[in-house]
Amino acid sequence: MKLTSTFLTLAFTVFAHAHSHEQTPLASGSAAIDSGEAESWLSKYGKQVDLVYTGPLAFSHLDYHRCLEDASKSFDIAVLGMPFDTATSYRPGARFGPQGIRSGSRRQHGERAWTITWGMDPYRLGTKIIDCGDVPLSPYDNALALDQMEVAYSTLLARDVAKNTSLDAPEHVFAKDGKIHPKIITLGGDHTIVLPILRSLNKVYGPVSVIHFDAHLDTWGYLPVPGSTSDQSRITHGSFFHVAWEEGLMSNSSVHAGIRCKMTGDTDIMNDEKVGFKIVSTDDIDDIGVNEIIRRMRERIGDSPVYLSLDIDVVDPGLAPATGTPEAGGWTTREVKRIIRGLAGLNFVGADVVEVAPAYDHAEVTAIAAADIIHDFLSMMLSSEPPKPRDERAPWRDEL
């Protein structure tokens, strides 16, 4: 009883003490309250800036425009979403990929984009980079959706660039019309979206080489489903490169990176080479190393215009689970980023990240990886050569 009485006395004392010091308004606001005038946010705190976790959902908080309907917005590089997933063979869901990748990019920002890896900030090179939103695609008619994607991509390719950067030298102009065209980084969507993209690029550049990061070849021919064959059904996320080859959209100097899928046999590889690809397998990173992989890829592509397509399943599903056709034993995110760094200086005309299906993600790990890879794409496109190793740029000193 004595203990209880002591406790109540102590509690009452603390309560009284706490309430004897009530909070008062900030000094800067007191005058406004006394005068009866409310001070505005702008006069007191300044602009309504977006935090890394607030604001409209644009990639890396870029300026967002509906570029397909508004031709007044010029740009050098556009981010464009293609929310399409009705040609998948296993798990659908990549129609939510563009939104997922944008969400994964929230901690990225143009005001804080310099990295040790690249030694530069892609947003501070005088290049105009904007988010052009998503293409409104039909989820019911694949033939219609493919045409919508092609028209959208061609519309943006035809725009005038905003500025001429230091990389716009004559040797970097491959377009048939001799002009510099903007570059587009596409957010997929399943991998089928690359077919209409290559069709659009072909109108401007002719056949292009392709660097294809993927666990799968995607050069398989027509694989009909019994009882449901049609011309349209032959175009899937596993056959689109074969169709692109039939249409003459690619040069004969393309390369796969990260292949590890199951196949029917070496006939699949023979067909792959006929379509114009050479394979860098997942295992090659252990057998020949990253630098040799980069050397072979650069030698294969040479000086030709090249399109880079990255299926997120090239990364091991333990690190990027949110994808439609996961394959165990993939590269790490760091290894993929390291190879991309080694490709800088090639003549890129566009790039994409595809097959991100957020419904299968955990803590946004796949979306964050995809967004970070796209940041590397920006640096890659705006670099004339691969960045030197950090120790060569700034040799280590014991006294530092």
Describe the model.
With 400 residues, this protein is α/β, with parallel strands linked by helices. Helix content is 33%, strand content 12%. The chain is built from 13 helices and 8 strands. It has helices at residues 2-19, 27-35, 41-45, 97-104, 142-157, 194-205, 240-246, 266-275, 284-287, 289-301, 333-342, 365-381, 390-393, and strands at residues 77-82, 129-134, 183-188, 209-213, 254-259, 277-281, 305-311, 347-354. The protein has an 8-stranded parallel beta sheet, with helices on both faces. Helix 5 runs parallel beside helix 6.
Poorly predicted sequence stretches spanning 5 or more consecutive residues: 6-12
Overall structural domain count:
1
Instruction: Give the strand order, joined by hyphens, for the main sheet.
Output: 2-1-3-8-7-4-5-6
- The top-level CATH class is Alpha Beta
Q: Termini, distance in Å?
A: 65 Å
CATH topology: Arginase, Chain A
The arrangement of helices and strands along the chain is HHHEHEHEHEHEHEHHEHEHH
Family: Belongs to the arginase family. Agmatinase subfamily.
Protein name: Agmatinase
Signal peptide: 1-18
InterPro entries: Ureohydrolase, Ureohydrolase_dom_sf, Ureohydrolase_Mn_BS
